[in-house]
Please model this.
Amino acid sequence: MRQRIVAGNWKMNLTVKEGLKLAEDLQKLLSSNTIYYSDTTFILAPSFLHLLSLKEISDRSVFVLAAQNISDKEKGAFTGEVSAAMLASAEIKYAIIGHSERRLLFHESNEMLKSKINLAIANQISPIFCCGEPLDVRENNTEMDFVLRQLDESLFHLEEAQIKNVIIAYEPIWAIGTGQTATPEQAEEMHRFIRTKVEQKYSPETAEAISILYGGSVNPKTANSLFSQQNIDGALVGGASLVAEDFFKIMMDII
Ligand code: PEP
Model:
């Protein structure tokens, strides 16, 4: 059964104190709701610095923590980097890999992301693998080729048992932080395409087991119609995850 997932990407926002407050506010809202399902997962992806300070709240709440990135190197003289093994030792079970901001601003290539994926899997961390096209690619109607290349070059080398631990997040770059959400039909079309490619590469069973999230200006007004699409299993949320009430509403929409 596919997991229904809502993940919040805090990016480089909030001090440690502000992060604790937001997580506490969310915990209070979540504890007022007693109905949760085993096929639903809520994830917060704060900065590395927040991960340990939020552990205690996460342990008594229904949300789990994710890193926003991991190093593509195993260990050694890579100042400023955080390895998959370090995250695993802090019991972090998820990591966003390949966010478009990292691809564009930090020049992360599909090849580098392949290394990150391998290290995450080797350390029992489930990657939330981001893919998605820039505006000019969509305007040229080549977004399917673009996304397929990202999957082919960073993900589709995995064994079938390994890829079942990957969450795919389709995040069209033109929709991230712009307020311009993809329409449910646009998102569903790409999600169906991605699931078909997983099916062709692996099997119908694996395609049916993998969660594919949509990301790009999801907010409390747009979440429900996106979640009603057959191949949209949840959302990766940026801006709206920084407002407890907004993120809570999106989390409740997935149930
Ligand atoms: C993101 O950063 O992954 C994202 C989807 O951001 P936003 O929701 O703000 O567009």
Remarks:
- The longest strand covers residues 4-9.
